[in-house]
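F.,

This is the one I mentioned.
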């Protein structure tokens, strides 16, 4: 009997029908591209455990453990987001890791905890509750995204960067604020050298080297610091080659209302950022993110966050810098990013690899942190540029939310008269700035008829309005 070629042709879809997002590349390209994603976000994912661990007063060995745990949980969260299960995961090339938004509130929790050994369990308990509530709220949140326009998200992202910059300045001055040489010329010089190296690499290199400029700067700065006697290789010598992030290594989670409220605010911020990232990435990979995709992506973020404390990790969110990498390389496969998640898991299971970051002197981290945290603030400013700041209502929203958000930075004792439990929320400029931005956006842009959308008067001009007849609305 004659064969029916159409049968086999119908069973095998043409190659061009596979969307680039779902494309599986050759093994070598998958591996190298996955490593590139890890390199682009590595410094960002280890910075939060370094900040929080230092605030708690962890030893070098414990700091290595916490860093490895965050790498491990970042890999698991990346699997959830890229590969997905059931209705969980956007199935886009997202890298997930510890969100910067939670750093300031977590350090505030540490500062308010008398017994520092309880600080991490309290944080873990708050993250678990916030993650579970976020998971349940995902279907509603994706519908309420109109209340989080660029004017809100841009303000929040800017505050994240601004709130973290003082951390890098503190690192630049040395490892111990009580030491006699804290802020000495040698520490500031190391920070300056590292900063210059990163900037030169970003300016005069291309491709992969340019993407890992921060990582190269950290390595070079550490080597330069050896003659200064400020590089300690002890954590590497003490670390095991193979290890596993023992569940609840720092103690069983504790649940305190104030800490939970603070982390719930962070969860809202994180979900807002992730939604904005999904919308942006959907356009880049030419698979626009609809409501269903955003809901599934938020479920992955929140479930990953809820599970993360089980392995001693923190709240997870999408990493915006990797979106830029996708746009630059045009490699849109989600499986490439899943391979990167695999590398993160392997690094988390190798304490010796994780301990390498603990070797990096604080001044070197400070120099790189200026670029890292400053880039977060710049990303927020880029978002604000698209927010329609020609409208004076939006200018006021940004102005007041940023002003309220930087109070804990410029006046740390501003809320000293408030109860300690309340200060956990108020001392986080990111949390307070986010709340103010959302409320002001509701007041100016949603409640009542409001002012005409085309009013372009400056808020310092006493409310004088420019007639539409003089300035007709531009055509769109």
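My design for it:
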């Amino acid at each position: 009997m004659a064969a029916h070629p159409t049968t086999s042709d119908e069973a095998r879809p043409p190659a061009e029908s596979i969307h680039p997002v779902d494309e599986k590349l050759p093994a070598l390209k998958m591996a190298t591209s996955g490593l590139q994603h890890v390199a682009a976000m590595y410094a960002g994912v280890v910075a939060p455990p370094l900040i929080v661990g230092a605030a708690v007063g962890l030893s070098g060995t414990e700091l290595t453990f916490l860093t490895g745990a965050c790498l491990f949980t970042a890999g698991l969260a990346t699997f959830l987001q890229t590969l997905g299960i059931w209705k969980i995961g956007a199935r886009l090339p997202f890298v997930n890791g510890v969100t910067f938004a939670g750093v300031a509130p977590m350090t505030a929790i540490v500062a308010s905890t008398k017994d520092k050994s309880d600080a991490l369990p309290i944080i873990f308990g708050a993250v678990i509750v916030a993650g579970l509530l976020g998971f349940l709220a995902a279907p509603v949140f994706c519908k309420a995204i109109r209340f989080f326009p660029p004017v809100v998200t841009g303000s929040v992202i800017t505050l994240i960067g601004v709130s973290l910059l003082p951390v890098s300045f503190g690192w630049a001055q040395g490892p111990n604020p009580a030491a006699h040489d804290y802020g000495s010329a040698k520490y500031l010089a190391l920070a300056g050298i590292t900063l210059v190296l990163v900037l030169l690499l970003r300016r005069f290199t291309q491709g992969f080297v340019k993407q890992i400029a921060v990582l190269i700067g950290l390595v070079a700065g550490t080597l330069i610091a050896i003659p200064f006697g400020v590089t300690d290789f002890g954590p590497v010598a003490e670390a095991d080659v193979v290890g596993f992030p023992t569940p609840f290594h720092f103690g069983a989670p504790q649940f305190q209302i104030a800490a939970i409220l603070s982390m719930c605010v962070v969860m809202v911020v994180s979900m807002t950022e992730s939604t904005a990232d999904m919308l942006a990435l959907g356009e880049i990979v030419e698979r626009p993110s609809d409501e269903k995709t955003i809901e599934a992506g938020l479920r992955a973020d929140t479930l990953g966050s809820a599970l993360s404390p089980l392995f001693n990790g923190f709240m997870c969110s999408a990493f915006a810098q990797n979106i830029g990498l996708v746009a630059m390389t045009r490699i849109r496969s989600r499986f490439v990013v899943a391979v990167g998640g695999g590398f993160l898991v392997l690094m988390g299971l190798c304490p010796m690899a994780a301990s390498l970051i603990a070797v990096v002197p604080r001044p070197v981290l400070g120099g790189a942190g200026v670029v890292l945290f400053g880039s977060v603030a710049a990303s927020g400013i880029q978002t604000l540029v698209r927010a329609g700041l020609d409208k004076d209502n939006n200018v006021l929203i940004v102005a007041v939310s940023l002003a309220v958000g930087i109070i804990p930075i410029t006046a740390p004792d501003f809320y000293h008269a408030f109860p300690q439990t309340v200060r956990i929320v108020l001392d986080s400029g990111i949390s307070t700035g986010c709340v103010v931005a959302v409320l002001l956006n509701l007041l100016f842009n949603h409640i009542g008829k409001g002012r005409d959308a085309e009013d372009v008067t400056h808020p310092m001009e006493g409310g004088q309005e420019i007639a539409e007849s003089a300035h007709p609305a531009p055509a769109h």
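The chain has 20 helices and two strands.

Talk soon.
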